[in-house]
Amino acid sequence: MSSGRILIADDEPSVRDSVGYALLQEGFDVTAAADGDEASELLGNGIPYDLLILDIMMPGPSGLDICRDVRSRSAVPIIVLTAKDAEVDKVVGLEVGADDYVTKPFSVRELLGRVRAQLRRRELDRSPLAQAVKIEAGPVSIDLVRHVATVREMPVNLTRSEFQLLRLLVGRPGEVFARAQIMEELWQTEFDGDERACDVHISNLRQKVERDPQRPELVLTVRGVGYKFNPDG
Predict the structure, then answer these.
(1) What is the DSSP letter of 77?
(2) What is the reported pLDDT for 1?
């Protein structure tokens, strides 16, 4: 059985009930909030959570507002729930620090898979093997023990997803990664979602590591294939 504490915030009782029941069956400790105000109160009471599931559109503070606030002080994995055609919400959710998104209507099985993937990745991040080395390539240095990245000797403030993406690319400089391959490497599971998520993570990373994000020197696009890290940038 799995373990961990998960907060789900959604104003639809059917979503809270179905997802909450499925998570309980998997062995998780589940707390549910019916709106943004309740979610904010729960998050402020000092009880730590291992993962958050936030509906973007709900009364009170939106899922995006809560995500932005939480991400400013915590690296807890966050999955946002978006409307069927709300492409902008998906992009903004990733930009404010969400690790993944699931589009409504969704299958509970799909969401459970995303939850497991995020928690699996978090455990890998904490493993002694993951923390045993320091990665350096070109002007980028990544300290896996302190979870700190520097570019041209200047520290950069990265979200957990951005840090893992940079670690993947810098760890294998010059290697070309397809979008689906990047997402699978990050989540340690088969990726069957929208590859647009990868592009948004890349764009966010470039904003923080490139001199000019519009003319990237480090994280390069390989047209028609994916991305690679250029140590000579």
Answers:
(1) -
(2) 43
| Rg of the chain in Å (alpha carbons) | 18
Q: What are phi and psi of 151, to 5 degrees?
A: -125, 120
What's the CATH number where 27 sits? Answer: 3.40.50.2300
* Strand partners for 220: 228
The encoded tokens of residue 8 equal 């789900």
User: What is the phi/psi pair of residue 97, to 5°?
Assistant: 120, 5
- Give the domain range for residue 202: 134-229
* Segment 100-109, tens digit of pLDDT: 888 888 889 9
Domain closes at, from 75, 91, 126 = 126
Residues 148 and 97 grouped into a single domain: no
Domain boundary among 107, 126, 145: 126
Give the pLDDT confidence of 135-194 residue by residue, as tens digits: 889 999 998 767 789 999 999 988 878 888 999 999 899 999 998 888 877 765 555 556
Query: What token pair was written down for 201?
Result: 């993570």
Q: State what percent of residues in the chain have pLDDT above 90.
A: 52
**DSSP 3-state of 130:** coil
Contacts 24+ apart (CB under 8 A), 149-156: 149/209, 151/208, 151/209, 151/218, 156/208, 156/209
DSSP notation for 131-167: TS-EEEETTEEEETTTTEEEETTEEE---HHHHHHHH
